Structure formats: structure tokens, C-alpha cells
From TrEMBL:
<dbReference type="GO" id="GO:0003677">
    <property type="term" value="F:DNA binding"/>
</dbReference>
<dbReference type="InterPro" id="IPR010982">
    <property type="entry name" value="Lambda_DNA-bd_dom_sf"/>
</dbReference>
<feature type="coiled-coil region">
    <location>
        <begin position="326"/>
        <end position="353"/>
    </location>
</feature>
<dbReference type="InterPro" id="IPR011990">
    <property type="entry name" value="TPR-like_helical_dom_sf"/>
</dbReference>
<dbReference type="InterPro" id="IPR050807">
    <property type="entry name" value="TransReg_Diox_bact_type"/>
</dbReference>
<dbReference type="GO" id="GO:0005829">
    <property type="term" value="C:cytosol"/>
</dbReference>
<dbReference type="GO" id="GO:0003700">
    <property type="term" value="F:DNA-binding transcription factor activity"/>
</dbReference>
<dbReference type="Pfam" id="PF01381">
    <property type="entry name" value="HTH_3"/>
</dbReference>
<dbReference type="InterPro" id="IPR001387">
    <property type="entry name" value="Cro/C1-type_HTH"/>
</dbReference>
<keyword id="KW-0238">DNA-binding</keyword>
<protein>
    <submittedName>
        <fullName>XRE family transcriptional regulator</fullName>
    </submittedName>
</protein>
<feature type="domain" description="HTH cro/C1-type">
    <location>
        <begin position="11"/>
        <end position="64"/>
    </location>
</feature>
<keyword id="KW-0175">Coiled coil</keyword>
Length: 447
């Protein structure tokens, strides 16, 4: 901290002018003897102490220092640690404010390491707050910077965050293209497996699952487990088990999915990341809910436990994911009103940017409205969800949504619209040659 040598005399002069004793100036946070040492020039006050003194003296900090205050690297590191703590405690707004406060003091030229740490923190805080478009803008800037300054910006970490954001925004093709290109670069370097490399593989597994490419997802999940097995970091193995279990579940192999996700739970339970453990419990509950012998009450109990944790340490998006799963469990338990409440709260928390999860949530809400007997609201929710899924290139999921909508339309006696919805389902599954009757070309020829 660059503070002129006569800061002590300034403190003494301003104290006397204000008619304060050293005890008055010390207040409850400092001691009179410490103030005496400051005035004698035998102690150098921190930025926080200067701010306290200036407040009691009714002046600006610059009046005490004789010029603008420049924070030391130590002061900035403390602010970064506070921001990280706020983010880990589920308060992205406080974290964002703290990271930006660091950037108000540090500059890319004078303190590049500090500034880039804060910039990455800003991007993470924006992502946790659900402000995905803004997060992407910062992350793309960091990705460009990682080319010129690989010593300051971790390229893989930035790419992983970008893939997550693009996935949530529904831009699956961009997420896959970016991750696959990065994996190809890693393969050319022929490096030993790393924790962050396994994390990239696991992230890509999730994107392929959303798009419905389960074969590629399964291959990458197996590869992630193999690589994680060569690394001493148990968290990497836990993440690989987590994603592999979801692939197994999507492929209808519930038994293996449960085995893998229980292994992942064992790994995460030994750590101290409460947020990650709660999110993993969400995935576990979904397997319980959609297994060959569904266990809705067990899933409900697990989700209630997760929700309690995420409301204190998770982001609003984490809470929304849990509420969406809880709505499914309530629906299975025939608690329709509770299912609707959870689904609607989840949609409010997701906002407009988390398009993929919002689409799935509309489908849950549609099923709940149908169970409630409100077919019109169910139709609207199914159609909206299907369109959002299709726009996100989640064609497999969209096909099922269109098929469910067709069934509702049939129940409502709207046969023409039901045929139209069936045709949308077939189109999403790759069947292009259909007639207005909705029959495939092969069926027409055989007839």
C-alpha cells in the first residue's frame, strides 16, 4: 500500500481538529495504544483501518494518505477469498459485487494475475446467478486471453464453463463443437490424464445426452472413468461415475445406473462440497423415480433433503433443478397441487435464459395440469416445452414431448392437431417423408 510517511501526522492533526481523543478515534474496533503508534509513524494501517479512521474523522481516505490509496496484492487476495466464499455459500450477487470491487482497484496491466482471477470470478458469479448471456461474454473474452496468456487464464476451465452455459442456453451444437475441438487438441499433445481433462469429458457426456446421442455419450463416459481411474483425485472418479450413471439410466439400464451413482455418492459424501453432494442427490432421486420399479416416496425424501441444502448453499438455478425433480415426485405420489407449485416456482427461478431446463419443466407442468383435468393448459405447456426442446436441438426429448401432446389432443377430440403433433414427433426422430395423413411413405406403398 503506497501511503506517505506523514500519514500519522495527518491522523493526529485531523483528530485534534475534530476534538477527539485517541480513545474516541479508536472506537470499539481499535485500541488507543494502536492509534498512538499510528500517529507516531510506528505502524502502517491497512486499507480497512484507514476507512474506519476516515469515517470517524468525517473525511476521505485520501485526506489521510495524501493521495489515492493503492491496495496491496494482499488486500486484493483477501477480497478474492471473500468473493469465493460468498460464491461457495450460494450468494452469487455478493460474490459478483466483491469480484467487481477487486477489478475497480486492480488492472490487467498492473496486477494481471489478480485481475484475471477476478474476471473469471465475475463469469462464474454471473453463471450461478442465471445471467448466462453475460457469463458467456466474459468467458469468451477469457478464452481469447488464454491463447496469449496461458500462464494467467486456464483454457480448459474456461472451455468447460462455456460448454455448461451453452448447454443451458440450448446451443448444444456450439457446446459440442467447442468441447470436441478442445479434446482433439489435448489428444495431439498426448498428455497424461488430468482432473480437469476428466471434467471436460464429463461435461461433454452431458451435452451429448441432451442431444440424444447416447452412443457417443456412453463411449465418452467409459473413457472418463478409465482416465479418472489413473488419477489419485477421487473427485474426478466421482464425477465420472455420476455422468456414466446418467447415461446408463437414459439407456434404460437402471440397475447399473444405481450402482454407479451410489459409488459417486460415496465419493462425494467423503468430501466437504455440500452443493455438489446435493446436486448428485437430485440425480440419484431421478433414477429412483424412473426405475423399472419406481420409488417415488424415497425419491421425494432425498429431494427434500437436497432442497434444504441447496436453499442455503446452492444458486437459484440449483434450487430450480431440485424443484423440478420434486414436482415429478409429487406427481407420482398424486400430489398434483404440490407438483404444480414446485414446477411454477422452478420456472420463475430459471427465468428466460435456462431454455433447456425450462422446456423440461414445462413438460412436468403439462403433466400436472393434465392430472388436474385442465387439458387446455396441458396442451399449451406441452407444445411450448416441445418447441423449446426442438429449438435447443434436443430432438429425442422433443419427439417424446410431441408424442405426449398428440395423445392429449386425441383425448380432447382434436384429431387433426393430434396427427400434426405425431408428425412433429416423427420429424424430430428423423422421419422426413410423411404424407398429410401422417403415414410414413413405406406404409403408404405397402397399402
Amino acid at each position: 500500500m503506497n501511503i506517505s510517511s506523514d500519514v500519522g501526522s495527518r491522523i493526529r492533526r485531523l483528530r485534534r481538529a475534530a476534538g477527539l481523543s485517541q480513545a474516541d478515534l479508536a472506537g470499539g474496533e481499535l485500541s488507543p495504544s494502536y492509534v498512538s503508534l499510528l500517529e507516531a509513524g510506528k505502524r502502517t494501517p491497512s486499507l480497512d483501518v484507514l476507512a474506519q479512521l476516515a469515517k470517524r474523522l468525517g473525511c476521505d481516505v485520501s485526506e489521510l494518505t495524501g493521495g489515492p490509496v493503492e491496495a496491496t496484492i494482499g488486500d486484493l487476495e483477501v477480497k478474492l477469498k471473500y468473493a469465493e466464499m460468498a460464491l461457495n455459500n450460494g450468494d452469487p450477487h455478493a460474490a459478483l459485487e466483491a469480484y467487481r470491487s477487486v477489478q475497480d482497484t486492480a488492472t490487467p496491466d498492473a496486477q494481471p494475475e489478480i485481475w484475471y482471477k477476478a474476471e473469471h470470478g465475475v463469469a462464474r458469479a454471473l453463471e450461478h446467478a442465471g445471467r448466462l448471456e453475460e457469463a458467456v461474454a466474459h468467458l469468451e473474452g477469457l478464452r481469447s486471453a488464454s491463447v496469449d496468456r496461458p500462464d494467467l487464464v486456464a483454457h480448459l476451465t474456461v472451455v468447460i464453463a462455456l460448454c455448461r452455459c451453452y448447454r443451458e442456453l440450448g446451443d448444444l451444437s456450439h457446446a459440442i463443437e467447442l468441447a470436441e475441438a478442445t479434446l482433439e487438441e489435448l489428444q495431439k499433445l498426448n498428455l497424461a490424464p488430468t482432473v480437469v481433462g476428466v471434467e471436460l469429458l464429463s461435461t461433454l457426456v452431458g451435452v451429448y445426452m441432451e442431444r440424444g446421442d447416447l452412443h457417443r455419450a456412453a463411449y465418452l463416459a467409459t473413457r472418463a472413468i478409465d482416465q479418472a481411474g489413473t488419477i489419485t483425485d477421487s473427485r474426478a472418479l466421482g464425477a465420472a461415475y455420476w455422468n456414466a450413471s446418467v447415461v446408463m439410466h437414459r439407456n434404460g439400464n437402471t440397475a447399473d445406473a444405481l450402482t454407479l451413482i451410489e459409488k459417486a455418492l460415496t465419493v462425494y459424501a467423503e468430501g466437504d462440497d455440500e452443493r455438489a453432494l446435493a446436486r448428485l442427490r437430485n440425480a440419484y432421486a431421478m433414477v429412483l423415480l424412473q426405475s423399472e420399479t419406481p420409488q417415488p416416496q424415497a425419491a421425494h425424501d432425498v429431494l427434500e433433503q437436497s432442497l434444504a441444502s441447496l436453499r442455503s448453499v446452492g444458486s437459484s438455478v440449483d434450487v430450480a433443478y431440485c424443484l423440478s425433480a420434486l414436482a415429478r415426485a409429487e406427481l407420482r405420489l398424486e400430489n398434483v397441487s404440490a407438483a404444480i407449485d414446485h414446477a411454477e416456482e422452478a420456472l420463475r427461478l430459471l427465468g428466460t435464459e435456462h431454455r433447456l431446463q425450462s422446456a423440461r419443466n414445462h413438460l412436468v407442468l403439462a403433466a400436472a395440469r393434465l392430472a388436474q383435468g385442465d387439458r387446455t393448459a396441458a396442451q399449451q405447456a406441452y407444445e411450448r416445452g416441445a418447441l423449446m426442446l426442438e429449438a435447443s436441438e434436443a430432438n429425442r426429448q422433443a419427439a417424446f414431448a410431441w408424442a405426449e401432446l398428440a395423445e392429449i389432443l386425441k383425448l380432447c377430440g382434436e384429431d387433426e392437431r393430434a396427427v400434426w403433433a405425431y408428425r412433429q414427433s416423427m420429424r424430430c426422430m428423423g422421419h422426413r417423408e410423411t404424407f398429410l395423413t401422417g403415414q410414413p411413405l413405406t406404409s403408404r406403398v405397402r397399402g
